[in-house]
């Protein structure tokens, strides 16, 4: 068996290991902490950038919405300006109306004060009138009694007047009413107030004379016989009545009436006659006022 050579003697001694400098542990810990802080800061910056981007996008959307709202607001403001102008115009009218209403209210209050004052004065006057009435009632009663006596006396007087007056048959053969034979009796007829009485005095003229609602024209007079001839003009017609005598009722009708109208002559003179016209109360309106009014 072959023997191995002894290598231990040929082997050179190994060089001693290199020595490294010693690093403290706190340095490593600080380095790790710094790396962690840097990582956290980078992460925080990335997160902040993302949030800023999201906020910017949200702000952009909000700005778009706000821009649309601003446009709508501007349009609404324009409408409001138009309405405001119209309202101002209306208000200018309304102010005038309010001024008128205020002045009217002032007048109404003034009128109310005057009415209250007037009412107070009226109440005082009413009280005075009531007192005067109570004191004068006895006097009025006495006066009424005297008036009744006067009425009774007038009634008796009228009855006596009627008894003095006479009636006659007219030229138409109709019984006339009461007739007067002189001026005094004509006045008595007027007092009776049963008919319209128009007293006249006719003279010979070329033109007719108005007597109440008709016209009369004296044609002829015969003083010896006491007769006369006249024309009666009524309703645009002229009728001649010849040789009529004193106190003879000359009877005729006019349009629209059924009651006789009468002319009575109670005096015949050389150139004139005197008498009266008697018409019903319900006859046509007269062209001249009656002498008894």
Describe this structure in words.
- The protein has 293 residues and is of the alpha+beta class.
- It folds into two domains: 25-164, no CATH class; 166-280, no CATH class.
- The protein has two helices and ten strands, in the order αββαββββββββ.
- It has helices at 25-164, 183-192, and strands spanning 166-169, 175-179, 195-203, 209-211, 214-222, 227-234, 237-245, 250-252, 261-268, 272-280.
- The protein has a four-stranded antiparallel β-sheet, covered by helices on one side.
- The chain starts with 24 loop residues before the first helix and ends in a 13-residue tail after the last strand.
Notable traits:
10 strands; 2 domains; disordered C terminus; 2 helices; alpha+beta; 293 residues; four-stranded antiparallel beta sheet
Topology overview:
Blueprint lengths: L24 H140 L1 E4 L5 E5 L3 H10 L2 E9 L5 E3 L2 E9 L4 E8 L2 E9 L4 E3 L8 E8 L3 E9 L13
Helix pairs in contact: 1-2
Give a quick rundown of the structure.
The protein is α+β, with helices and mostly antiparallel strands and 293 residues long.
